[in-house]
Amino acid sequence: MNKKVVAQLGLFSNTIIWGGTFTIIKQALSGVSPMMFVSSRFLLAALILTPFCYSTLKSASKINFKQASILGVYLFIGFITQTIGLQTTTPTKSAFITGTFIVFTPIFQTILERRRPSMMSLFAILIATVGIVLLSSPADSKLGVLSELKSSFSFGDFLTLICAVSYALYIVYLDMISDTINYKFLSYWQILVTAVLSMLTIPLLHFTNIEFIKFTFDFKVIGAILYTALFATVLTTTIQTKFQKEVTPTQASLLFSMEPIFAAVFAYYVMNITVSPMGMVGCVLVFSAIIFSELFSKDKFK
Length: 302
Description:
This protein has 302 residues and is mostly helical. Helices cover 78% and strands 0% of the residues.
């Protein structure tokens, strides 16, 4: 099995793990404030990685620390803007706007790496975007999420858009630096940076009345922190950091667009939340876009 296939399988497995976090975190947030959850998740993840990755700090250069810190900042911005944005927007709009990172990724790839995606890849992104629109819209409206945005674009929507931009930058910047940095160091340091910035943000949000500190020691909260720290942070960040360099940022973003599909699957089996017929069509379109891109894209892999 060649490197490209292994990388794609690894990135694809990430979307399954990330998809499961939606239901788990939704159930846990009744007992913990969002930023407390985020900081606990990343702090625990950093502690788990410390015995395995601490030695890599000695061989890292100042440039490596700077690059990994920038990557961590992009990751942190994505989490904090999405978390705060959810306070003043609907889950439907949040899911759709976050999914627009697949549109921003080829733009940043072209600007920052001067590597233009093929027309086939861009067409696949268009198909996937339509799929995300259908998947994110209410059952009684084919394009309901777009109507919501047109009638009431809130500050929360704006913050969520920043999240999408930040994650697209994260994907492209990771592609730019991952060839020259030890993946263990890069995984560890970006998680640690995100953890520190998240902890510093907690009192800021609390004293500005944006989000009050809340933490309940119960099974749902502790279980969610353990799952997201170990699987959805340590494992997925390591996999993405190690393998994303084998594909282009645009191809990676298309693979990641599968996340809302798996989120819908987990929501159905765990919370009995059904997907509308148009949502099913959206799932098929997203999956078809990935297959189309794989079969017909002329993008060059590293």
